[in-house]
Amino acid sequence: MNIAFVLLTHNPDEPAGIERSIASLADGLRELGHRALIVAAGPAHPADDPDLLRLSSLALPRPVQYDEVMRLLAEPAAVDREVRDLLTAHRVDLVCWVDAGAGLGFLNPAPPGVRTALMVHFLRTDDAMHESLKHQPGVVLPVSDFLTGEAARAGLDTTGWQALPNALLHHSAPPTAEERERLRRTGPVRTLSRADPQKGVAELLRAYPAEGLGRPVQIVLAAAGFEFWPGMQEQVISECRALAAGLPDVEILPALPWQEVQPFLAGAAVTVMGSNAPETFGNVAAESLSVGTPVVGYGLGHLPVLTGGAGRMVELEQGPEGIWRALRELVDDPEAYHAAVGQAPRQVADQTPVAVARAFLRAAAPDAV
After folding, report:
1. For position 188, what pLDDT does the model report?
2. How far is the first Cα of the chain from the last one, in angstroms, to the nearest whole number?
3. How many helices (H) and strands (E) does the chain have?
4. pTM of the shown model
5. Does residue 141 contact residue 117 with C-beta atoms inside 8 Å?
6. Which residue segments constitute the domains of the chain, with CATH numbers given?
7. Omega before 320 cis (within 30°)?
8. In the predicted model, is pLDDT for residue 367 greater than 90?
9. 8 Å CB contact between 302 and 288
10. For the residues 170-183, what does the mean pLDDT come to?
11. Distance of CA 116 to the CA centre of its chain
């Protein structure tokens, strides 16, 4: 089959979970022998590959504000026509709108006879979402059962929705048992985050123990191609750098290419996550678990289901102090720590690109499996 994913904001190595998940799903489909294309807005990126199709009818500034995407699509005729022409020219059999807005679900520019699917990565009940559902996509694919429940509670008809997890983009070998024990005793605490206030990095830094942890704390903060208000990401990065400058053994690191994420997390004793809003999936946690690194964070959204016994979840009311306390307790308990390490890869064993690609096809094109 020829399958296309539409996500206007897509760029290679974009520090964002949706973009990473689409790249990994496309890889899984290619492994199964299908052609997988990604349709995105311009401008072109030096790392674009031949399966990334750029629109000439729409270019996005970097960073673009979320509301601005819909404003730029206020007169959508040119984009509608170009997307339909692209899908026709490439003989696409199935097109997946990766989002109701930036994925053009609300526009539904599918040529006649082409199957459609709508992905839902975060809760939205706006006009774009309602328009997307009115087009009656062949299947709606939320990223987790948690998100399906949230959508139902918000009044959306979720009948027939089928949860599709994000796939892990790369495979990376976990540390040996000996190396893992060394990491437990002295290894760094690490995390990666898009520069978004809801990721809670500044709050973690403000609550950081005055005496330190006796080990390095390394935080990758990256600016994505989108933000919620002008200067948001610059503000977050500047604030976190200023906070880290006064703390023992804490450093803020620049963005990593996608293929370096799992090795970076494999070299951590624990991955800490401070998101104070529910994670509808939790890409960083999944990538950490895949290399045997336990996760500590708030028990919100899909994160408790994703991590299971491979870490520690604390109540939001405990605040970031509770996260640091739980982290210390975990690394100070060898038996509990190594049990979490052993459980971690099992939590995401079914989230390989091929496995998720098969699940995608079963939901969106069952006769192609």
Report:
1. 98
2. 10
3. 14, 14
4. 0.96
5. yes
6. 2-167+352-368 (3.40.50.2000), 177-347 (3.40.50.2000)
7. no
8. no
9. no
10. 94
11. 22
Q: Which two tokens stand for residue 262?
A: 């799992």
Share of the chain above pLDDT 90, in %: 96
Which two three-digit tokens encode residue 205? 């830094």
- Residue 122 has φ and ψ, to the nearest 5°, of -150, 155
Q: Which amino acid is at 185?
A: R
Please, which residues bridge with residue 217 across strands?
189, 250
Contact call for residues 86 and 2 (beta carbons, < 8 A): no
CA atoms within 13 A on the CB side of 145: 3
- Which residue is it, tokens 């210390």? 328
pLDDT digits (tens, 9 = 90+) for 42-76: 999 898 999 999 999 999 999 999 889 999 999 99
What gap in Å lies between CA 95 and CA 100, rounded to an integer? 13
SS (H, E, C) 252-318: EECCCCHHHHHHHHHCCCEEEECCCCCCCCCHHHHHHHHCCCCEEEECCCCHHHHHCCCEEEECHHH
Give me 124's structure tokens. Answer: 């939205």
Instruction: Locate 300 and state its tokens.
Output: 């919100």
Radius of gyration over every alpha carbon of the chain, rounded to an integer in angstroms: 21
Number of residues written out for the chain = 369
Per residue in 94-147, pLDDT (tens digit) is: 999 999 999 999 999 999 999 999 999 999 999 999 999 999 999 999 999 999
Cβ–Cβ < 8 Å for 190, 271: yes
Measured CA to CA in angstroms, residue 164 lies from 21, 335, 353 at distances of: 11, 33, 12
pLDDT at residue 226 in the model: 92
Closest residue by Cα to residue 61 from 102, 134, 9, 129: 9
C-alpha 147/C-alpha 20 separation (Å) is 19
Per residue in 195-226, pLDDT tens? 999 999 999 999 999 999 999 999 999 999 99
Q: How confident is the prediction for the chain on average, in pLDDT?
A: 96
What's the rounded Cα separation, in Å, for the pair 121 and 5? 14
